[in-house]
Amino acid sequence: MQLTAKSCLPGRRISIFPLKIPASVRELLSLLTKNGFQAFVVGGCVRDSLLGGSPNDWDICTSALPSETLQVFTGYKTLTHGLKHGTVTVVSAGRLYEITTFRRETTYSDFRRPDEVQFITDIHQDLSRRDITINAMAYNPMEGLIDDHHGLQDLRARRICCVGNPQTRFQEDALRILRVLRFASTLNFGIEQQTGSAVLACRRLLSHISAERLNNELQKLLTGDGAVKICTEFSAVFSVFIPMTDAMKRGWALCAPLLSHLPKDLTSRLLFMLGGIHDSTLIPDSIGLEKALNELRFEKRQVRELLQLAALMPTDLTASNFKTILAQIGAPQFYRLLTVKESCLHLMPLERQATERQALLILRGEAAAFLHNPNACYQLRQLAVSGRDLLSAGVPAGPEIGWTLRQLLALVIAGKRSNTREDLLEALHELKQARR
């Protein structure tokens, strides 16, 4: 199949053959073919190359059995942890490449993994088992593009479409339901009608999938260019695997159409979508949020950051308190809080929006000016005195050092003391006097 120069992807030009394959990958393909085997790059690397990208991972499929692949690459370092699935990992030029035997999968009794994998020698059968058409293309420099399922046509149409019957694909591995939504979001593609209908019809199968696998797809989906459309049109899918209170469901419905107002920052978007914020009070459902994050197996650090922001959402940010909040949560979290609050303005009555937006805009400017000041002080490490200075001044070692430093920082933030060694040591003397 030959490609023409014509492209139907706005802003993304379909590549023209030959695809730009790294030298190390071409070497692996060449070694397999010289030994009498078929070999192709396959899946995401072909898709991304056609979209004009530079793939990070290059997967290879081959007619060679795993034992034969090992023989071909006897001069290379190889890893065999995926051997039972037909995968040999070859180390070349300091990178890992997965080389997998063509395979056919039998029944799926747990909606997650095949009961049996059969190795075959037919690339066409191998491609027919894959999830979506744009991931079911294979290529090598000798034979060109193998595209049995019109993946190139779907790329040009900016469309996600399952290979074969979508309900069959989803019953084999239910995670494919969320993968369809994820690719539609990250590529900002539409979803073919039959595939979209099957996503909704089969959504309850996601209950068979582990939280870790769901979490991985959800994080990528929420930060995609097409997240607004997916979160709005397929909200029923997310309620299957995200435990949502009534407040969280109302918040999701109200916030999904507004998601594009946020940068592609996962923490900000998670708070916006799962915080249960559904009216102008900006009071989140912190209990529901924590339960959802824990059940989805988010890292403790992420849970802590999200709950920290949720607790501050109802707080009015002002010129008099923003430095204190900066000291409490740090600059990155402060800007997330400010951005989510700005996005939540759309939940307020129209007559309040302009005034609140102007106030937040002024505050953003003041915060930026403060943070860009080389003499800014809102963290203990920025104080002009240290724990050693306090010890020298007679403060006992131990917890009192930390307590005293925090008191001095509070005085600086409040503007009651300047951040100079002399002024802070004078303030220290007053603190000691007051505690006698």
TrEMBL record:
GO molecular function ontology, one term from the record: nucleotidyltransferase activity
Keyword RNA-binding (UniProt): yes
Entry protein name: CCA tRNA nucleotidyltransferase
Record-level GO BP terms: tRNA processing
Coiled coil: none
Domain Poly A polymerase head as annotated: residue spans: 39-160
Keywords from the named record: Magnesium, Metal-binding, Nucleotide-binding, Nucleotidyltransferase, RNA-binding, Transferase, tRNA processing
Stretches that traverse the bilayer: none
InterPro entries: Bact_CCA-adding_enz_type3_sf (IPR050264), CCA-adding_enz_C (IPR032810), NT_sf (IPR043519), PolA_pol_head_dom (IPR002646), PolyA_RNA-bd (IPR032828)
Superkingdom, taxonomy of origin: Bacteria
Residue stretches making up the CCA-adding enzyme C-terminal domain: 377-427
Record organism: Hydrogeniiclostridium mannosilyticum
Cofactor: Mg(2+)
Family note: Belongs to the tRNA nucleotidyltransferase/poly(A) polymerase family.
Residue intervals of the tRNA nucleotidyltransferase/poly(A) polymerase RNA and SrmB- binding domain: 188-229
Pfam families per UniProt: PolyA_pol, PolyA_pol_RNAbd, tRNA_NucTran2_2
